[in-house]
Amino acid sequence: MGEKLIINKYFDKDTMSVHLKEGTRPLAKRGKPGSYSLQKISSSTLTNNLLESISKEINEFAQNKQDSFIEIQNEKSTIAQIGKTRIVITSPPVSDTWEITAVRPIKKLSLTDYELENKLKERVLKKAEGILVAGAPGEGKTTFVQALAEEYLKQNKIIKTIEAPRDLDVPKSITRYALTHVKPEELKNILLLSRPDYTVFDEMRNTDDFKLYSDLRLSGVGMLGVVHANLPIDAISRFIGRLDLGVIPHVIDTVIFIKAGKIKKVFELAMEVKVPYGMKTSDLARPIISVRDFETKTSEFEIYTYGDQTMVVEVKVEEESIGGIRKIVEEKIVEIVSRYSEDAKAELIDFSTAKIIIPRKDVSRVVGKDKETLKKIGQELGLNLKIEAASLEEEKKEKTPVDFKVGFSEKFIQLDVGTKKTGEQIEVYSEDEYLLAAKVGKNGVVKVRADSDIGKEIKQGIKKGKINICF
Description:
alpha+beta; Beta-Lactamase; GMP Synthetase, Chain A, domain 3; ten-stranded mixed beta sheet; 12 helices
């Protein structure tokens, strides 16, 4: 940075960033990524006039020096790059007072400094082409990306960068593009025509950034993106909703999580068709993104759609996680069943079975003829559904039990409740599970086809002495 600039006096060799705000004392972050302290570096309070002078000096210097430039300039805000230092200047009404923040790298590393295992080194240098480098601000993401970009350069790869603003410290042979000065579509065309082997996308923030990264990757360009995230899985979650779920593993194949300047976690992504973790029946199999630990190859997360919800499920599910999934599934069941009953409630028994709680007056409508409606709802949800709620059981108890006789013909099961019940509505249960509602015929008999699903359940229930009838 220019030696004569006033702001230089606030820096020493251990200073990562300087924070100057009108009406306060100057502050500096000193240390290294992941291990720094915020210190007061002067006893003098910063004045409006001093900050205006510093701002004017920075603007003039950035416009007249070869290694410096103004990246963004609006009426009340400026982002400038002076050498390796990025400077953000704001004033009222953008900020409540004048404020200047200057950030610079204090250490440059090579890939060998990270002591990568051979297997990981081979992946990032030869196999991975959709890499996300994630971590919280100030943890060393950019430093790692710079080291990786320079390693690609040593392998005679053509490297480009996308930055907003430009603050990577890379060799001059790497062309750096400023997203603040070009539209994403134009930049995409430039990059595709110039055919880089790898493009470094520093700090993706908004939907346009993620879309540009994805478009370039799907076009065959190797991509190395930087994303702010507190957890490794959060980096992948930033793409959910911005891309079709099935496309994500084709865009991202490796996630490297940086904390305190070191690689703390590496994920790899793969698409599988399987039954999601925690579910049991094979009918629930679906496409799933498996997020695996790179070292152990064990799946730690699964990402899939359930109805119109996208689920990100930790494979080692804690009870709290199960509770969150249960709530989403139960809400989805109620949403669908509400087409037939306004007062529906649901309870997830396990990941393959649920019971529905509905008023007695709506039971016939929800179950449908030969349980067709209930089956349809179950297929839409991917669950086995039962109408077996305590409230329904109580309603059943309030009704009057009916004595009945059972007869069988070639095609029908005959439930004879007597001619006194002719024309009345009866309900048939197998223990507490509702089976059907039917109107009694003139001869006091209700006929059920023996080869129907309901007929088979009634036949089984009769053998076990579980069938009862109420009106």
